[in-house]
Design brief:
- The chain has a six-stranded mixed sheet with strand order 5-6-7-3-8-9, sandwiched between helices. A three-stranded antiparallel sheet has the order 2-1-4, covered by helices on one side.
- The N and C termini lie far apart (36 Å).
- It has a single domain, classed as P-loop containing nucleotide triphosphate hydrolases (Rossmann fold, 3-Layer(aba) Sandwich).
- The radius of gyration is 18 Å and the shape is globular.
- The relative contact order is 0.18.
- It is α/β, with parallel strands linked by helices.
- The protein has seven helices and nine strands.
Length: 230
């Protein structure tokens, strides 16, 4: 477990984020756009802009180092890799690891010889996940990686992440605005609103008995919970 006792981010007189939460097995950070999700990820990655004042109190039994103990999967897989090089040349670490991770994510190893533009959105997202796991990180951060995918591919990526976590064993913080994805993937949920944690805890409890109207609004607005999808 990672204890994020305090993540405080301020810009001039405006406090953007002031939260604390634990990252357990699989934790979802949910909230509408502008709630502070991306800033929280940047704080964990050590990528906050210099223009922001911050105070971080994060405790872990391992050193948090981006690209080593921390893996990162960005929102847009199409801009995450160089379009000028084949996948193989953008791999981190030995190629044996690449073949193993490609197999675990359901990818043909022949894709390593292709350019990113030759891959579909689902294939490219699995490549990015494989690259993020190449250094064998203890923490995987994911920034809404299923947003640009169609429902079938979204389900596929969720299943792959669950299987990878079971096989490899890493902590996961999944950032999303979609509560339906959080429910399928994560054991715990942290709800952000205007840079504050307004509710958090066991995912099952939050879905069955949300304490805050804002949380209920997020649940009700999830696509698969809409009336015409039932």
């Amino acid at each position: 477990m990672i204890a994020c006792n305090k993540i405080y981010i301020k810009h001039k007189k405006s406090v953007l984020v002031d939260i604390g939460f634990d990252i357990k097995s699989a934790t979802a950070l949910v909230g509408q756009s502008g709630s502070g999700k991306s800033l929280t990820l940047k704080a964990l990655l050590g990528l906050l802009p210099r223009s922001l004042d911050s105070e971080l109190d994060i405790k872990s039994d391992f050193e948090l180092i981006r690209g080593k103990s921390i893996g990162f999967v960005p929102q847009n897989a199409f801009t995450a890799l160089s379009p000028m090089s084949i996948i193989k040349k953008q791999w981190i670490g030995d190629m044996k690891n690449a073949y193993e991770l490609f197999e675990m994510t359901g990818l043909d190893s022949g894709l390593l010889e292709r350019f990113p533009s030759e891959l579909s959105g689902g294939q490219l997202q699995r490549v990015i996940i494989s690259i993020a796991l190449a250094p064998k990180p203890k923490l995987l951060l994911l920034d809404e990686p299923t947003t640009a995918l169609d429902p079938n591919l979204r389900e596929e990526i969720i299943k792959i992440l669950i299987q990878l976590q079971q096989k490899i064993g890493f902590l996961m913080l999944f950032v999303t605005h979609d509560m339906s994805i959080a429910k399928k993937l994560c054991d715990d949920i942290v709800v952000l609103k205007n840079g504050k944690c307004i509710e958090g805890g066991n995912a099952k409890r939050i879905f069955e008995q949300p304490k805050e109207p804002y949380t209920k609004e997020l649940i009700d607005s999830s696509f698969e919970n809409r009336e015409f999808r039932k």
